[in-house]
Design a protein that fits this description.
By secondary structure, the protein is an alpha/beta fold. It has two domains: about 130 residues, CBS-domain (Roll); about 45 residues, no CATH class. About 40% of the residues lie in helices and about 15% in strands. It is built from seven helices and seven strands. Strands 1-7-6-5 form a four-stranded mixed β-sheet. A three-stranded mixed β-sheet has the order 2-3-4. α2 links the parallel β2 and β3. The chain starts with 5 loop residues before the first helix and ends with a helix.
Length: about 190
């Protein structure tokens, strides 16, 4: 594993789920599902969508949690339940209270239908420098960066341009196979 580089494990941009800025959240979710089907069962599934500008350069990333979070209507908010944790109420109690209030609210089909109105750039996260790694970096550097920054993926760059994504799942698979080989299990 010492001689392997980030570029050996990254998923190239051409194989990753992408949409253009200006697309709706619905279009992004459909693109993610299509990319997952095309990627096949032998690999780990995608958990994010990369957002491209008009020059096909990555300007942001929308992960599954970002997409789900976007569906929560602002007008209904959290009913003030987020603040209850400060007063010693358990997470379980807060969730039950939230569910009680939500029963009278918007249902899943309506939430999903609303996704047509949301633009991906309103919910995407723009990449930070700490989320990027050079394609020639060694895997030990990638491991350190993922752990240090508590990330699930790194955007891989070549001369400052994002060319792929290194996912924690792929890195963990490489670690597992190295450990298994060293212990004689493979």
């Amino acid at each position: 594993m010492n001689s392997r580089r980030v570029e050996d494990l990254m998923v190239p941009l051409s194989e990753y789920a992408t949409v253009s800025a200006g697309c709706s959240l619905r279009e992004a979710v459909v693109a993610l599902e299509k990319a997952q089907q095309k990627f096949g069962q032998a690999k780990y599934r995608h958990r994010a969508i990369l957002i491209l500008n008009e020059k096909n350069r990555v300007i942001g990333k929308l992960n599954q949690l970002d997409a789900v979070r976007a569906l929560i209507p602002v007008r209904h908010g959290n009913y003030g339940t987020d603040e209850l944790g400060c007063f010693g109420f358990s997470n379980r109690f807060v969730r039950k209270l939230y569910q009680h209030y939500r029963q009278q609210s918007v249902q899943l089909p309506e939430l999903c239908n609303n996704a047509r109105a949301f633009k991906v750039e309103d919910y995407m996260c723009s990449p930070f420098e700490d989320e990027c790694i050079d394609h020639k970096a060694d895997l030990a550097t990638a491991i350190h960066q993922l752990v240090q920054e508590n990330l699930r993926s790194l955007l891989v760059t070549n001369h400052g341009e994002i060319v792929g994504i290194l996912r924690l799942a792929d890195l963990f698979s490489a670690i597992y196979h190295t450990v298994a080989r060293q212990s004689g299990r493979i």
